[in-house]
Structures are given as structure tokens and as C-alpha cells.
Design brief:
Elements (H helix, E strand, L loop, with lengths): L1 E7 L2 E8 L5 H11 L8 E9 L7 H10 L10 E5 L3 H15 L4 E5 L2 H9 L7
Parallel strand pairs: 2-3, 3-4, 4-5
Antiparallel strand pairs: 1-2
Length: 128
């Protein structure tokens, strides 16, 4: 369990499962960015469906991870889709999306992976 990633059809799919430490999210993201198999650019999908840790993360930690994406905005196409079916995951992910917007990454939270992928592969999101 923990934070895992894979590449599929031009998408970096990061999955958070069970318990994991606060630094593991950014460490695994950096590993993915440095992986020779990582496309340039790459769409980013974060799936927190199986995360047990997210619900206990302090808001400052969620903010830090969201803002961490800023320097990678161009590389990830300025977008991040989050799959969060449970209410607590959905709400905390929505909070994170507010902070990622401030660093140039448009984030959207979805209840299903299918909807998240459809948004990622669709037209660019409008910047409000």
C-alpha cells in the first residue's frame, strides 16, 4: 500500500492506498516525473479512492501538496484530475484544488475515474 504510479495512454495515474507518510506523495510524484517512461507532457490523475491517510491529514499538509504542483504546471498541462468517491475525500480534495489553482494548476474532483479521465482528455479547462 502507499502511493503508487503508472503511465497509461499519456496519463500519469497516481493511486493513494491505505496509510502513507506525508512526504510519500511528493516523493512518488518526483519519481514519476524523473521516470524515463514519463511522457512529455503528461496528464495527471490522482486517485484517493483507497486512501486511509487523507482523512487525517491537516489542512496545511493538503495545501503544501497542492502548491507543490506549481513548478510542474507546464509539464502536466496545467491540469490535475482527482478521483475521490467518499464525501470526506471529495471535500478535502476540493480544498486542495483551491490551492493548486493559485499556482497555475486547474484541478477538478470527480466521483469516478471515468469522469476524471474524460475531463483530462477533453478540451482545456477555462481559467476563471
Amino acid at each position: 500500500m502507499g502511493v503508487e504510479y503508472q503511465f497509461k495512454d499519456g496519463v500519469l495515474m497516481m493511486s493513494f492506498a491505505g496509510q502513507y507518510g506525508p512526504g510519500e506523495v511528493t516523493e512518488r510524484f518526483l519519481a514519476a516525473m524523473e521516470d524515463p517512461a514519463c511522457p512529455r507532457p503528461v496528464a495527471l490523475l490522482v486517485d484517493v479512492s483507497r486512501s486511509e491517510s487523507l482523512a487525517t491529514r491537516p489542512s496545511e499538509e493538503i495545501k503544501r501538496v497542492a502548491k507543490f504542483l506549481g513548478p510542474y504546471a507546464d509539464r502536466i498541462g496545467g491540469r490535475c484530475a482527482v478521483v475521490a468517491p467518499a464525501d470526506v475525500q471529495f471535500g478535502l480534495s476540493q480544498m486542495g484544488s483551491v490551492h493548486s489553482e493559485g499556482v497555475g494548476v486547474t484541478s477538478r474532483v470527480f466521483r469516478s475515474r471515468e469522469d476524471a479521465l474524460a475531463w483530462l482528455k477533453g478540451a482545456p479547462a477555462s481559467q476563471a
